[in-house]
Amino acid sequence: MHPTSPRVLTRRSLGAIGLAALATRAHAADAPLQIAQVIPLSGERALIGDDWRNGVEMAVQDINAGGGILGRMVQVSTYDTQSSAAGLRGSLQRALDGDPYALLGPLSAADTLASLPMVRERRILQITGSTMVSTAGAPFLFLASVPEAARMTKLVLWMRAALPAITRIGVLWTPAEPGRASRDAFVRAAQPVGLAIAGDLPVPTTAAELPGEIAKLLRAAPHAVFLAAPGRDAARLLIELRRQAPELPIFGEAILVANRTLEKAGAAAVGVRASVALAAAAPPLAAFHDRFQARFKQPASSAAIEGHMAVAMVKAATDRLGRADPRGLADALRGQHITTAEEPALLLDTTWNAAGEPDRVSFLAEVTAPGQVAWQILPPLQAA
């Protein structure tokens, strides 16, 4: 009989196999936790992806230096979406084929929505960098940052409390995303608190049309204007608004106080106020910004902060669960309030609701002089 036949297996050999299996399981229990991230590192969104990756890298190094997650080191595998739909499909499939403990990304709303069916089948925690997606019907999807709707709600609550004379808002927006989504979120938030929409116009497609369209908006006699436009349009809209209505208050999204907008708009940006989810220059995040800048020789963007927070979310969920169970992470994080005392890498105290959306402080930025921005903290909605 051949010596490898099952019939000649002895109690001793079975015991040896059992010990080997136990050793294999023990090794697996001590093996690094493998996290995958699916982000753009080439193409038009590469800068955002690179910032996110740097934030992830910094968090992983800090967490591993502190002993890892439940004593296990963290390793991250990165897959480039190439800023394209085809690149997303390929990178997502490769990431999921590696059976990751959790998935970070994608970073845009369109890519996140496209990824949901594949991720849902794996039943693993997914943390997106987009604030424009709904987590409804996606039980494993969580947002790294405060969603657009919540930030617009906080903005209008601040406006009603701080500037009660403003009751009529003109809205100027771009039909393309993210302009339309920001416009929709602001309008939905404004009307229930008594802010009437006085004029609601998409941005003209040609520069020649812009002065006439803004004049039309101003004839509706708004007390202020909410501006929702991408970076390429924000500065020119600010300049024309200031030319026609120099004293009119202007509110908008974070892009209005981005460095490139401030550089192009110059004095036209002074007085602008913007709702910003995460700002490295704001006091609660200044220490993180300094460490990030020292390491990567560049300022920390919101994408870098989100990437750092995403890794912290995985650690916090695992710690709450008490074991490394990828199928249990989402439920372990849902509805939880986690402080930076519990998880320093989270950077800001955060509460996640049942839908996987975070509630934490955000920021109101005000341009006080050309290129200079002052920051004010907007409290979590639960505290508003």
From TrEMBL:
Keywords attached to this Swiss-Prot or TrEMBL record, sorted alphabetically, are: Amino-acid transport, Signal, Transport
Q: Show the InterPro entries listed in the entry.
A: BCAA_transport, Leu-bd, Leu_Ile_Val-bd, Peripla_BP_I
**Record's Gene3D superfamilies?**
3.40.50.2300
What's a BP term from Gene Ontology annotated to this protein? amino acid transport
Residue ranges of domain Leucine-binding protein in the record: 32-368
Give one Pfam family: Peripla_BP_6
Domain of life of the source = Bacteria
* Residues spanning the signal sequence: 1-28
Which family does the entry's similarity section mention? Belongs to the leucine-binding protein family.
Q: What is this protein called?
A: ABC transporter substrate-binding protein
Please report the organism this UniProt entry assigns to the protein: Limobrevibacterium gyesilva
